[in-house]
Amino acid sequence: MLDFYRHLYRTIRPASEDDDEVRADGGVVSDGPAADPAEPDRDVTTRLKERLDRRFGVDFIESSVFWLPPFLLMGLFVYGAVIWNLLISLTDYERFENAPDYSNLDFEMYTRALADSGFIDAAVNTLILLILFTAGTLAIGLILAILIDRGIRFENTFRTIYLLPMSLSFVVTAQFWLWIYNYNNGIANNVIGTFGFGPVSWLGNQDIVLYAIIFALMWQFSGYAMVVYLAGLRAIPTEHYEAAKVDGASTLKMYWRVIIPQLKGATISAAVVLMVFGMKAFDFLYSLVGGYRPPNGADILATKMVREAYANLNWAYGSAIAIVLFAMALSVIGPYLVYEYRRDNL
Amino acid sequence: MSDAEPRTDGGATTTTTARLRRTLDQMTAGDAGLYVVLLFAAAFYLVPIESGLVTSFKTGTAIIETAPFAPPGPSGFTFEKWQTAIDALLRGMGNSLLYAVPATVISASVGSITAYGLTIPTWKKSYKALVLMLIIAGIFIPYQAVLVPLTQFWSQWVQLDQLLSFVWALGINNDYAGIVELVITHVAYGIPICTLLFRTYYKTMSDEMIESARLDGATLRRVYRRIVLPLSGPMFAVVLIYQFTQIWNDLLFTLVLVSTESSPAAPVVLILAGLGTSMEGQDFALRMAGAFFAALPTLAVYILFGEEFAEGVAA
Known about the structure:
By secondary structure, chain A is mainly alpha-helical. Chain A is built from 15 helices and no strands.
């Protein structure tokens, strides 16, 4: 019945709108004079509108008032800025020049990056951080979600506690972890001390510091992974659990064979978001030392870019590093968006 | 662990004690193990925070003498660090609120309108998907990729400092231009996530009411004001909470746009990042007190609206 109305509505609508006036956004609250286009233009505008309607769909023009201005603002700040950034990275802009000189563009900054061992180290560290952080956080989140989903009591309390660090700023959690990793009085050395190890200079040892930071980030975001997985688990029909039980599968086997494969969507979207958080670890590293230079061995592209641009005033070089970072992000996001589009999930 | 879990929690009429007794009866070794693991995990998440809290009340000697997670004894207890931290951070709190609140409200409203225009009206799906993809990709952009142009934009192209000179004439420090820049910047970069959150909500809205309203000749604007907006309340809660936390917690933009922690317009995150660091070493108690004080607004929001926060991050 409703389909019939919808159909009817679609067929009569373009016709009725012709005499209705192009943008009579009227109703009761119409703001009168502004909506009236000049008479002679009317034929042209109506025809143009019809053509646009056919090309984009009936509500395209009317709805553009809603989404186009924000879209343009955001497009300017995001895509305009990225393109501008790309241009700056091709110049030699540095120091206290007011604006880059766009007349002389080359790839000098990119060749400079490849020759800079600091850049290579930062790129490698970024990859290690992204992969380990994402994988570790997902694993912890999945385990917590499965445990919480077993119909426990105080479920809300546990969930609230696990998600709590996520509500805190990197600036705040960095202070906590600086204290935990303190050489003399920190909890980390206290804990391994009871097992007869240590003390370890967590933030001073170049080989350890990156992993110490990854651990801290996992602490902060595994609650997030848990929430995403929990939503995924709740979407699985109970029959699947029961069917597995009837087949006599053990709990472990049931999760491994039946449940976890169904969490693919949750895993992918959580992984993408976590990688993005990982790339934003700048705030954490900056606050850890209160400056642009992170501990030796923990420099990542995000910190190096800001340091080059805002501390060393190598604006063009910083922009080039930013473009590399952007390309890394794009290689993750691009396929993800296509995947979501294919699943009709946009 | 292979035995069936008690998924139901007693009838509504049973008293708490009866229910508790029954629960204990049904407890198996597996269940007990489950709770032990869950409690350990809870400790893992809470200990860094708890340790920070007790440390913030310790005197210099108590920090060295007591375990980092143990509360200070009566002799090692002091409010002094909190006092110092509050003195240092209070103006930063005010500044942060000054941009976080408007930026949150504006980006949530704009996000709602954008999502509406991209969800309810009918137009070609493939074009819609293109616009959506561009918007959603905006969520995941590493901000480093826009920083230098952003600096250029605000320092060379749109010099708010001069445009707003009539405001400074009223005796307001012109560093507050940075606050206005922060509002606009956060709104622009907040549009993508707010749009996505609202869109997931609007997609589930029933079309019947909207279709029939449109059949009656209601314009899109009227449909939004009369039907969609009044139903958006719960999602507004989610988005406002999520956005507020994000904007309050952000350091990168404040660092670039306001730049110095000595500025009268310095937001709280900027001051906190440098708090308690000096030549003689780090004053951990002061750092912890500062961290807690700066986190108070987001903690309050989280404790009061935990459900909405979870929903926001899960979307």
